[in-house]
Write a sequence for this structure.
């Protein structure tokens, strides 16, 4: 925290924004670190795990991804995404399924083994998070949720 924040007075708005920016960098770095570590432990490439998370988040939100959307989110070439998805299909983590609204498109859906892999990541992470957040009042959690939504929106625009 800044000197002002440590002297008992609350930090100013610019100081709070700097702290939030630093927190976002720290969360991003930690997320990358634990994702790579988990992928190595489970013998999948970091890119495969990263793709699986995108597929899982999109499908859980009710908007499964096409290969083009996954390619855009991962910022890789069409050939690279085809190779990655084929590898994940061969491993049994995802499948292609015809889009019921446009048969020319294929949606990426996670398979049971892909879901198990993702749950193996999120279940212990969620337990650690609940333990850390357990002492915070609901109003703080609601404020944190609003902050995270704003961060996600800002990152989506980046």
């Amino acid at each position: 925290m800044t000197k002002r924040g440590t002297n008992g007075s609350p930090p100013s708005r610019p100081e709070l924004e700097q702290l939030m920016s630093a927190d976002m960098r720290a969360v991003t770095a930690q997320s990358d670190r634990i994702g790579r570590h988990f992928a190595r432990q489970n013998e999948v490439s970091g890119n495969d795990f990263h793709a699986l998370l995108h597929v899982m988040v999109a499908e859980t939100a009710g908007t499964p991804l096409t290969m083009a959307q996954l390619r855009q989110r991962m910022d890789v070439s069409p050939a690279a995404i085809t190779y990655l998805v084929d590898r994940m299909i061969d491993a049994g983590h995802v499948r292609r399924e015809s889009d019921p609204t446009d048969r020319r498109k294929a949606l990426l859906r996670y398979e049971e083994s892909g879901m198990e892999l993702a749950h193996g990541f999120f279940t212990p992470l969620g337990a650690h998070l609940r333990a850390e957040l357990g002492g915070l009042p609901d109003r703080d959690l609601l404020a944190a949720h609003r902050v995270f939504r704003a961060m996600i929106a800002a990152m989506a625009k980046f």
Observations:
- The mean pLDDT is 89.
